[in-house]
Amino acid sequence: MDGVDVAAALASALLHASWNAAIKASRRPQQAMTAQMVLSALIVLPVLLWSGLPELAAWPWIAATTFMNVITIAALLRAYERAGFGVAYPVVRAVAVLLVVPLAAFVAGDRPTLGTGAGVLIIASALALLAWDAARDRGFPLSALGWALLAGLVTAGYILCDVRGVRAAGSPWSYGAVVSLTNALAMSWRARHDGAPWRQVKAEWRIALPAAIASAASYLLILWVWSHAPVAPAAALRDTSALFAILIAVIFLREPFTLRRILAVLLAAAAVPLLRSG
């Protein structure tokens, strides 16, 4: 991966952790999530008008990733209801990267170099350390762990669908715009009992609008990286969002910063040069 790809993946990670923290901190996370997804779709609509529709081969992947994303969001919100952000979010990202990395070569045909493989292994270890730390937390009940594990499992599925889809689409911008629209439609249908989408946007726009901007930018950035860069290191870098989540949880949400979490942050930081060199 070149320096631009590394920077884009890390920026995507920071943005992803930030908008998830905003949703978790809101008074009504379910409504805020729906409003965020609707606003994200509106934000990227001009991109679709500029880029045009994706190639036909991408549409089965669009359908699959939309279905999986709705499941992920539902499980993630359940985990957020039961545990702190700095606990639930890292577990989800750890599970996702631990599954994506070994499957990337099979699904996308990407063969990592020795240096890249070492960097991915170190980041996976850092995220596993976060997950272990979370599992030892008394404020992380088994029900929250179950929902976080489900969210991580399905997240890995939609990441792999996105990789195949964006490479078949002909343009990361067209693919990202269409998926944002289908996600918004699916989420609005799922949350229909909470009221019309425009009512949820009106009620939650103060949190949802900045979250939507961050979400749209994060998604388009990582799709651009996945459209041409090796999947395993890019996914590992993207899932350093778990480490940004720890910092956000400690600084803004006043959650504890344990020794194991400090070690995980240092491990992941040490892995970035390996991914860059690979």
Largest sheet: none
Rg computed from alpha carbons, rounded to a whole number of angstroms: 17 Å
What is the N-to-C succession of helices and strands?
HHHHHHHHHHH
Distance between the termini: 6 Å
How many domain regions? 1
Number of strands: 0
Q: Strand portion, in percent?
A: under 5%
Percent helix, as a range, is over 70%
* Total of helices: 11
Runs with pLDDT <50, length 5+?
A: none
The global form is: globular
Structural class determined from secondary elements: mainly alpha
Would you write up a description of this structure?
With 278 residues, the protein is mostly helical. The chain has one domain (3-277). The chain is 83% helix and 0% strand. It has eleven helices and no strands. The chain has helices at 3-25, 29-51, 59-82, 85-108, 114-135, 142-169, 172-190, 197-226, 231-238, 241-251, 259-277. Helix 5 (114-135) packs parallel to helix 9. The longest helix is centred in the C-terminal third of the chain and has 30 residues, at 197-226. It is globular, with a radius of gyration of 17 Å. 56% of the residues are buried. The mean pLDDT is 83.
